[in-house]
Amino acid sequence: MPLALIDPEAASMSTGHKPVLLREVMEFLSPVAGGHYLDCTFGGGGHSRAILEAAPGTQVIALDRDPEAAARAEALAAEFPGRLTLRTENFGNLATMAESGFDGVLFDFGLSSFQLDDPERGFSFRTDGPADMRMDRRAGVPASRWLETATEEMLTGAVRDLGEEPHWRRVVRALLAARGTGALARTGTLAEVIAAAIPARDRRALRIHPATRSFQGIRIAVNNEIAAINAALLAAFEKLGPCGVLCAISFHSLEDRPVKQTFRHLCGMPESSDDSMPQDLRTRRAEALTRRPVVPSDEELESNPRSRSAKLRAIRKL
Fold first, then answer.
1. Cα(277)–Cα(297) distance, rounded to whole angstroms?
2. What is the mean pLDDT of residues 92-119?
3. CA 34 centroid distance within chain
4. For 300, which of 19, 25, 112, 226 is 20 to 30 Å away at the CA?
């Protein structure tokens, strides 16, 4: 499956938060009066707002591992007294959450515009800033320190496996060679190190900045994102009440793959071409609401370029 990339360089040309695939998400969730919903990735709060506005008395519990989301949630909660609760929590820990019986659960795995547009967060190389990349700056280590201390095997996993960079060997060698020089401390110089490792002919042929794939892989590794997704999907399904809907928006193949496989498993379908389990041994616990992923309309792509690689999948619990 080809990798769909969020290019921080291009993405940062458009500022302001716009919830992705909002109309489609709302069609699947179809919020009902007094319904209870779980937004596992609050971000800018656009999806949570839409749920709160959709029907009288809807209740939303929202999660976001980024503590900076608290101020945005506080403002939204003031508009809907007693109906929105934000928890500064990694959705990877969803299984420990006490509440259940939700009418709908939503994941939006993309970075928020607030994170991309803040140079101090280190997610984009368009504006120079510290190479941090942590979604929660209270935990873990910044990317700059991780790059200085990670083993060669860990760097390979980030650049080759998580970034799917074709020239991963050159990039990993360049990152190792740049240790101790200070070049890995800032997004601008880090991007230069990576770009310089890509052969000039291939750099000219790229439609994205040559550091995009590696930045993505490093960010995923620093935040342990794929492990969190794998842990959260089944936990979220268990939190649904009967006929509850689970929606997931992904932005690249590494996110979409576990969503697709988990949803197919829950629908009693083969997870992949390698899955040879006999059909009579499968258990069907959900129905697929999307046979293929829903992608943004031309109108949304024009108004929100950051949505261009988004894919939405949805299932309903039986």
1. 37
2. 92
3. 28
4. 226
Q: What is the pLDDT of residues 153-172, one digit of tens each?
A: 999 999 999 999 999 999 99
CB 224 within 8 Å of CB 253 = no
Tokens of 176: 């190792």
**202 and 133 within one domain:** yes
Identify the residue whose tokens are 């291939």: 202
5: which DSSP letter?
Answer: -
Same domain assignment for residues 177 and 313: no
**23 assigned to some structural domain:** yes
Distance separating alpha carbons of residues 60 and 52, to the nearest angstrom: 7
What's the rounded Cα separation, in Å, for the pair 95 and 54? Answer: 27
What residue numbers bound the domain in which 95 lies?
8-114+225-317
- Residue 253 clears pLDDT 80, i.e. is over it: yes
Give, as one character, the DSSP assignment of residue 106: E
Q: Are 220 and 134 in contact (CB under 8 A)?
A: no
